[in-house]
Amino acid sequence: MTPTHALRLPPKPPARPAVDARWLGVLFVLGAVACFSGLDTASKAIGAMPVMMLVWFRYATQASATALTQWPSRGRALLRTRHPWLHALRGLLILSTSVCTNLALRAMPVGELTAIVMLTPLLMTLVGATFLHERVSPARWGLIAAAFCGALLVARPGATMLSWGLLMALLALALNTGFHLVTSRLSRTEDVGTMQFLTGCTGALAATLVLPFFWTSLGSWTTWALLALVCVFSTAGHWMLIVGYAKAGIATLTPLLYAQVAFSTLLGWLVFAHVPDALALAGIAVITLAGAACTWLSAREREQARGLAALEDASMEH
């Protein structure tokens, strides 16, 4: 009879734990904001190229990439929507935001512009409290006030970069806020793929209508290379953002969007040798920390409200 120890197999190595989907979501979102910073940096490096040409290439590429990846599996379902006019408005808002952002980039450093545009979630909170009568906790009011003080440190009325660049940055902030408010409304009933496809198509179509008035020869291969980078960064950034949100919840990942300020400031230093002064750095830090904290508090308050509602429903059933 064979000894029992001769039948024993060597112990199996412990199974490697699967990677938490939330960490994958974090990596994808950080990759997305790095792409968006690269997008702004490449757009600024292009220089004198007409802005409408730049945004046309960007949105035409984005719409084409979405169609190639989504249409084979979705078909006409990709076009189904209950709110076509809201999709058109969303597309026009993001196109207008891109135009104003690119105009501002010609007069402002990348990091400072990014910090101002990243005031969007705070401005959305302010709009919700003022016009939609949403409840805002004292802590969030304090963070909003701190962020706007940080914006004053960045913009500093009377500074050399003020005037045209700052006006375009503030307009981009307002338009971006409108874009996110419409997105919030559509996301309650609309498919994410449909939103991305129709937004890209609207932006490409609107830019195409005015493109003949702005078309010019690009000439240099360097310009073509930078333009290719703009298209790649834009398309890859939006794709990674969608995948990241699919891996982990919006509440977990949204504060990470403020990492774009750090990426943009770093790229501004590496590419354009722009180093913000002490006041601008302080303002950037205040906006980033206050914005991330406010976003986290908002998500936490929503989770608490949903928990209380669930408890109330359970008590009513019993």
Automatic annotation (TrEMBL):
One of its GO terms (cellular component) is membrane. Residues 24-155 form the EamA domain. The keyword DNA repair does not apply. It holds the Pfam family EamA. It comes from the Bacteria. Keywords: Membrane, Transmembrane, Transmembrane helix. The keyword Membrane applies. The chain crosses the membrane at residues 21-39, 113-132, 139-155, 161-182, 194-215, 221-243, 250-272, 278-299. This is DMT family transporter.
